[in-house]
Write a structure and sequence with these properties.
Number of helices: 12
Distance between the termini: 190 Å
Strand order of the largest sheet: 1-2-3-5-4
Helix content: 25-40%
Structural class: alpha+beta
Shape: elongated
Largest sheet: 5 strands, mixed, barrel
Radius of gyration: 61 Å
CATH topology of one domain: OB fold (Dihydrolipoamide Acetyltransferase, E2P)
Strand content: 25-35%
Number of strands: 30
Length: 642
């Protein structure tokens, strides 16, 4: 580092004299001015030294203090008579510039060497500017006017150092600030692309052009602008970070605003205008009408149903549109494309009528049905209830898919409201037509469980033929609270037709009727008074439940759970029970354990009473004995009387 500094000092020493000599050549041009200034200075100094007859300080002290120029006094100049000084200052001001730092002045190139340019800025000496600062101007020559900044008053050799580059930067910022404050248009060169936009050279300052400020329409290729010179407006300056933001869109918007006012003033409903597709969204298309944007909603693009606007239009496409509506300020304009063509319903043939068969394509499916396009822009609805004769409603997707070509029958046709309802099931025979032959009362069939309700199960015997099994007809013996406890959806059940209502299209089915009623045999087996052994299966409110088998359960009231020792039976205890109530119709069985030992007690009591009675009977005297004894006693009484 020390060697390098030494070499630099030697080099500067070698070049100092040539530079100083070069700077002195144009100094002759100012020789007369310098000599005049020096003469004037000498004269002023001699005048200041000469004695005066009466000074202002002595003659009028108050005025002296009031008019005293302290600045001049500090520099050693007598403030009493400064006429010569004023003349000197005027002369200097008229011929030389003030060489203060950071001041931009205009100078003239008076000499060009291999390394530097000598610039006359009308100071006491010429200044030096490195030729590197003029690389943008290779044609620089003597006599050219250039702007420079007084960078250093004097270097180590006493040379005035100037900077053209710094002067250009200061002037560039002045011009940028002025363009921003006054809103003037500036030219800029697009240097390159960067993240989010472009870098633009404006007056030598790198400014940022956001992608959103290039044009009023979205830009897909930024590279086409690189290397171009364009007009811009300075829209933002950050002095702290020295950032400049420019906009080309602002200029376009200004022009468009004028066009917009003119177009908006002429807008009328029903008017047809030519526009260009500016943007495509999922809900519609924005069309540029020449400075004013309007929206064509997806439903106004085509009489036919479409999934996305790009099926109809593409970006930058020119097309005619009709004005449907606009707000009071005419800032929101609703446009239409399909309205330029006649409505397809108007072209629908008069020969088409209810009952006719039509073919069409499924375009939309909803839970409640499917829309069929029978002609371009003409759709009919097939409700899910018209897709099958089945009374069990399902989703339309169970029958058709989007894009399917199907045949249907016209059920209703309203040309005024442009509505049409269709049906598929009408193309096949109604299964209820010969229902009495297929499913007579008492016949047995198999069906598929399709749905549950709280009161029963719907079973489908065939497509369009559904029957209901009431919950009470599911099992002879089981007490079912909900059908899901007995069967599952899609299970196959064997059923018997119990009732048939052709007019009401209703079938009443039974499942338990496919087997014999076990309660017929249980009525004898579990008759009142019969005794059976079982264990307490469950304790319930007010008693307990015991199971004699899979079909028969009995309820035991709490008081009938009493054992001989006075305690009640508990869950799991096995004991003998007596049936005290049996109801086949309501499948009700009531049993008692207490009745068993109470009956035994009754027998014992009865037997004891009988035995006691027998003993009493044996001890009882006969009637004959009583009479004989009574006669003996009478005879004795008669003998005593005699």
């Amino acid at each position: 580092m020390a060697d390098k500094a030494k070499e630099t000092a030697v080099e500067e020493k070698k070049t100092a004299k040539p530079r100083k000599a070069a700077a002195k050549k144009p100094a002759k041009a100012k020789k007369e001015v310098v000599e005049t200034v020096e003469a004037t200075t000498a004269e002023v100094e001699e005048t200041a030294k000469a004695p005066k007859e009466v000074s202002l300080k002595e003659s009028n002290p108050e005025k002296f203090l009031k008019d005293f120029n302290w600045h001049n006094y500090e520099e050693g100049i007598d403030p009493i008579d400064d006429g010569k000084l004023e003349e000197f200052e005027k002369l200097v001001a008229a011929n030389f510039v003030d060489t203060l730092d950071d001041e931009v002045v205009e100078g003239e190139v008076v000499y060009i060497s291999d390394r530097d340019a000598i610039i006359d800025i009308n100071a006491k000496s010429e200044g030096v500017v490195s030729l590197n600062e003029f690389r943008y101007n290779p044609d620089l020559k003597v006599g050219d006017k250039v702007e420079v900044l007084i960078d250093v008053r004097e270097d180590s050799t006493g040379q005035l150092i100037l900077s053209h580059r710094k002067a250009r930067t200061i002037k560039a910022w002045d011009r940028v600030n002025a363009a921003h404050d006054e809103g003037t248009i500036v030219n800029g060169f697009v240097k390159c692309r960067t993240k989010g936009g472009m870098i633009v050279d404006v007056f030598g300052i790198e400014a940022f052009l956001p992608g959103s400020q290039i044009d009023v329409k979205p830009i897909r290729d930024y590279d086409i602008y690189v290397g171009k010179t364009m007009e811009f407006k300075v829209v933002k300056i950050n002095h702290e970070f020295k950032n400049v933001v420019v906009s080309h869109k602002a200029l376009i918007e200004a022009d468009i605003e004028e066009q917009k006012k003119e177009i908006i003033g002429q807008l009328e409903k029903g008017q047809v205008l030519e526009g260009v597709v500016k943007n495509i969204t999922s809900y519609g298309v924005f069309v540029d009408l020449g400075g004013v944007d309007g929206l064509v909603h997806i439903t106004d693009l085509s009489w036919s149903r479409i999934n996305h606007p790009n099926e109809i239009v593409e970006l930058d496409q020119k097309l005619n549109v009709v004005i449907l509506d606009f707000d009071e300020d005419k800032t929101r304009i609703q446009l239409g494309l399909k309205q330029l063509n006649a409505h397809p319903w108007d072209a629908l043939g008069d020969e088409l009528k209810v009952g006719d068969k039509v073919k069409g394509k499924v375009v939309v499916i909803a839970d409640y049905g499917a829309f069929i396009e029978v002609a371009e822009g003409v759709e009919g609805l097939i409700h899910v209830s018209e897709m099958s004769w089945s009374t069990h409603l399902r989703s339309a997707q169970d029958f058709v898919n989007v894009g399917d070509e199907i045949e249907a029958q016209i059920l209703t046709l309203d040309r005024e409201d442009r509505k049409m309802s269709l049906g598929i099931k009408q193309l096949s025979q109604d299964p209820w037509t010969d229902i009495t032959k297929k499913y007579p009362v008492g016949s047995t069939h198999k069906g598929i469980v399709r749905n549950f309700t709280n009161f029963g199960v719907f079973v489908e015997l065939e497509e369009g033929i559904d029957g209901l099994i009431y919950i009470s007809d599911l099992s002879w013996t089981k007490k079912i609270k909900h059908p899901s406890e007995f069967t599952n959806i899609s299970d196959t059940l064997e059923v018997v037709v119990l009732e048939l209502d052709v007019e009401g299209r209703k079938l009443s089915l039974g499942h338990k009727q496919t087997t014999e009623n076990p309660w017929d045999k249980y009525e004898a087996e579990f008759a009142v008074g019969s005794k059976h052994t079982a264990a307490i299966d469950e304790m319930v409110d007010k008693g307990a439940v015991i199971n004699f088998n899979e079909d028969i359960s009995a309820f035991v009231p709490t008081r009938h759970l009493e054992k001989e020792d006075g305690n009640n039976l508990k869950k799991g205890e096995e004991a003998e029970f007596q049936i005290i109530e049996f109801n086949k119709e309501f499948k009700k069985v009531v049993a008692s354990h207490m009745a068993i030992h109470k009956e035994e007690e009754a027998k014992i009591v009865k037997q004891a009473a009988k035995k006691q009675a027998a003993q009493a009977e044996e001890a009882k005297p006969t009637l004959g004995d009583a009479n004989s004894k009574l006669q003996e006693l009478k005879d004795k009484m008669d003998g005593k009387k005699k």
